[in-house]
Specification:
This protein is an all-alpha fold and about 170 residues long. About 75% of the residues lie in helices and about 0% in strands. The termini are far apart. About 20% of the residues are buried. InterPro entries: DUF6155.
Amino acid sequence: MGLSDIKKELKKLDKEKIINLIADLYTKNKSVKEFFDFYVNPNERELFNKYRDKVFEAFYPKRGYGYNLKDGKQAISDFKKLGASSDLLADLMLFYVETGVQFTNDFGDINEAFYSSIESTYLAVLKLIRNESLLDKFSDRARKIVNDTIDIGWGFHDYLFDVYYQFYDDK
């Protein structure tokens, strides 16, 4: 079933049935609830802080031990789906990279998969920043990330250095 089929079926319903359907979705589906909460009260800063905490907890969990990059990436993906501003999305993605770098500096070299995840997010956020004309706004943070990786192995620093200079010409 596709979107056009859903729209056709929804057009058959009266207003009260649509309201009941949405209310049912709201109570049964966490992501629908979050979407409508944001739709009704679009407080981007509050939402950003919530997802920033999720990213942080992916590296530094309150309970247990170890990082979970999947949870951090999922937080970014979920935040993006809610339609928040590109500025805050870029901020969250940079925070993911910064936290990954800090985690490595706290605990020592991790592994190639860890670095690949951080590298891909760094490249993606710099592309987003460029496309949204935000390079100047985030230049200090982007540079600091590279500077903070000097002692990290696996070619991580070299890769981030090369990516940084693809977007910034301050060699």
